[in-house]
Every structure is written in C-alpha cells, then in structure tokens.
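for the record, two folds in this file. i put them one after another cuz i was lazy. first one right below, seq on top, structure tokens after. the second one comes after a little note so u can tell where it starts
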Amino acid sequence: MKAAERGAPSIRERLARTLAGWSLAWGLAVGVAVWFAAAHEVDELLDEALRSSGELLAAIVAQADAQAKPALPASRPANDDTPAADRAIPAGAVDEFAWQLVDAEGRVRQRSARAPAAAWHGAGHPGFSDAGDWRLYGVALPSGDMLYAAQTGAERREARLDVGLGAVGAMLAIGLLAHVWLRSRLRAEMQPVQALSERLAGLSFDASGAVVAPALGAAQRRELQPVHDALEALISRLAARVASEQAFAAHAAHALRTPLAGIDAQLAMALRECPPALAERLQRVRGAAHRLQGVVAALLGLFRAGAGPQRGAVDLAALLARLPTSALQVHVDESAWLDADADLLAAALVNLLDNAQRHGARQVWLEQPGPNRLRLRDDGPGIDAPRRAALQRALDEQAYEAGPGLGLVLADRVARAHGGRLALPAVDAGFTVELDLGPADTQAGAA
C-alpha cells in the first residue's frame, strides 16, 4: 500500500466508528428511557400489591372483630403485661412487607416484626402515603382503627434497579449486535468497490489500442452505475487516443523508412567516390543514418497494428553480424539462442549499442545469463549508484519522461512487448543492461 493510501481516511473505518458511536448512544438512550418507564411501572405494580395486601389484612381484621375474636394471633401469652404498642406479630418469611394496627387515638394495637413500635401516622391516613423510608397504604376499619400495610423503600429501589439494569443491559446488547451486523453488512456492501478497483487495475491496451483485460461490466450496485459509465467513457477515450498515437507513429515510421534507405544508398556511393578527406565525415553521417534506421525499425515493430511479437528461435551471433556496430568491438557468445521477435530484438540491440558507443565504451560483451535473457555490459565510464537507481525506478514505473534516453526506453518497450522487462544491475565498472524477454514460446521453439 502506498503512503498516500495509508494516510487517507478510510470510508469503511469512518462509517464503522460512526455506527459504533451511534449504537452506543442509541443503546444508552433507549436503556435510560426504558429504565424510567420500567421504574414507574414497578412502582405502580408494587403499589397495587401493597394495596391488595392492605385490603386483605383489613378484611381479616374486620371479620375477626365482627366475631369478637382477636384479629391476629397475639405475640405474647394472655397474662403478658407488655404494652400494646410492643405486641409484635412475627413477619414470617416475607421481609419486604410490614403492617400496623393503630386505634383512633394513634396507639399501635398490633404490628408485624419489621414494623416500628411508634405509629406511622398519629391520625387516620387512608390510602397511599409515605413515612420515612416506608411506603404505606392505610385502610379504615369499621371499628375506627386504621390498618397500615407498608413496604420498605430499599426494596422498591432494589426492584427498580434490577429492572433498569436489565433494560439498559438488553439495549446495549442489542446495540452491540446491531453494530456488529451493520459492520459486516458495510464490509459486504464495500466489496463491489474493491472489485471495481481490481478490474480497473487489470485493464491494459494492446498494440492497436484496444482494451485487453476484462471490461468493467455491469455495476453490482445501482449507486455505482454512474461511476461505471464514466469509467467506460474514459477508457473508450483513452483507447481511441492510444490507437491514434500508435497509428501516427506507425505511419511516421513507414514514411521515414524509404527516404532513410535512399540516404544510406547515396552515402554508400559517395563514400566510394569521395576524396579521403571527406570519407570520415561521410562515414559518421552514414552511421547516424544507420542509428536512425534502427529507431524507425523499433517503432515499426512496437506499433505493428494488432500484432504481438513474432517469436522464433534467434541466433544471437548471426543477428549481431547483420547490425551496424561502428567502432565498437562486440564480443558475443556464439552458442546463445533466444526465443524472441528478431526485428524487435535487432532494434533494441542497435539502440543499446549506440548508447554504449556515445557514452565512451570501446568494447561490449553480449552474454546469456539465463533462459531467454540477454545481458549487455560495456567498458564505458558507467553512472553513479543514485543515477542508476533513478533510471531503474523510472523504467519500472514506465515514467519514461523522468530521464531514460530513447535507447533505454525502446529496449524496455521491446522487453515488455515480450512479457519481460529491462533491468540495470549494479556493477563495479562500466554499464550493464539485462533484457528479460519473458517465457519462451514452446510452440515456436518446437516449430
């Protein structure tokens, strides 16, 4: 991943963080709202239970009074002199409720174990009321007494807390599950964008300017269709531009080849007829014409409309014997054979040998370091390491405007047309170029 891509914000991550924040906020908001609603409902339910308990106790006491019997079993023996306010009835297993039976004068006649000895209310107070940390419900008896059923505030708070925490926890759990689900859905919905970028990365153009790699095809999401349409239009314009430029280069090369051949023929005749003083100058002109012919031949090969390299078995020594090498002394491996397009390879060699000569080399060695690979090394002054690295980077990125000369550019284009690349390995002396001509064509080799 490039540095710019690492530094750019991610749509998926930004949306995921937003979803996480909103899920948490939603869960808390809903949980708090449910907490208050549940707390209110809990209070109503507990009040209803308290009212029912009070009315039930009042009915029991009223029936007992009507039958002239003790309303509730006494908590002391009959001869006990304990004041009536201290006569407590055991509460049994139910600890959250308490009750008091208070006469008209505000004295406690009977009470449960958890009820206080002093009356909750001195005067009659029917219905719901609060006394300290107690929630009361009073019922007036036919005898004039008041029966108070009560529940502790702690019990109510505990009930509200249990219900509220359960509601908040449930909402947070739902929010978390929603976040996980939405994140997975977001990842799935972003896949078409990734697929589109992969298809774009695979696009390329052949020698005629037509798109080679698979087309973009129909958009996988309706929102991406305008992007697909714009990219398809851009690809069509680029293809037309590439085809136009390649056609122009091919026509220009064809137009130059005939006059160049005529110039070479005229120079050859002039060399035979001219005085010795002019022979050297004419020879240099003829050498320049040969180099120009090599460039034209390379252009014709590279822009051969709609055709790839015409591979075949190439005898390197025989090919080199047909090329103009001027004053260079070229050493070639006589056993070297390559699977390549002979015309394209010849054009690349002419330009590379011309580069070596123009940069001060006297000797060049042609070697075959591996299958379908060709190495050219010379005894020239070479270049420093930073410059070599910059040239290699420009060739790798095909940034030909960044510094490589025409010779290296044509050689790299020839290598890439074969499915390989051009490399500039580091050496101790001189300058070295390695042409990788891609995998050998087994069918051509067999033929």
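(here's the note) second protein begins now
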Amino acid sequence: MELSCKNEYALLALIELASHYPTGEPLQIRQISAQQNIPDRYLEQLLATLRRGGLVRSQRGAKGGYVLAREPWKINLLEVMQCLEGADSQPLEPEEQHKTPETAVIYEVWNEAHLASQAVLKQCTLQDVCEKRDARRQLDIMYYI
C-alpha cells in the first residue's frame, strides 16, 4: 500500500478536524488549507469525497465548514484509505496462464503484506495519530530547551 499525495492530504485535513473536534466548531476549507498547506481546490474535492464516505459532515452558513462525522477515536485509517481508494481487500491472484510456483509464492507473500498493512491501518485511529503528533511536538520542544 502506498501513501499517495491524495491520502496524505486527506489525513492531514482529518487530523486538523480531529484536533478541533473537542470545540465542536466547524473548520472552513481555507482554515484547513492554510494550517496544513493543502491547495484549496484539491482540499474541497477531498472533503467532498470524505463527506460522501461518511467521515466528515459539512455545515452551511456564515459559521459553516467541516467537522468529523464521528469521534476521532472511532475513525480508523483503513476506513479513510478505503473511502479514498475504494475497498481493495480482494486477494491478488496471478492469471492462470502465468501461474508458476514462483509466481504463486510471490502473490502469496504480497497478499500477506497487504493484509498486514490493513491490520495496522485498522488498529490506528485519528485520535492515535493526533496523540503521536502531540508527543512528537513535546519532544521537539524539549530538544530546543
């Protein structure tokens, strides 16, 4: 599994929304864009996809914007990836005419790696990522003292 620019930007936006989740205030696209350095138009498309996937909600009006649809500890990274890329949890199978013992072993190992990465992403929530970020920030502050 690859961390594409699309996945990275979506995760950055979700982390920003998770950070503001306790306040309950929606964030506007320009706020998220400025804080995480994501192009506005691209972020707008990503948030629309995340909204259709049920991960964020949009609120209209002067104080409108985006908020997480659920608590950050209830959204795992696998959900985010599947929302953006589609559910690609089908095991890979070599085409019948190319099936050799070597090819079968390669596909078997690739499927094991894929399942392992899915397990890691399923265990890690947006809350976990925010906590790791906060811990890293603390280490950076201690380093400069």
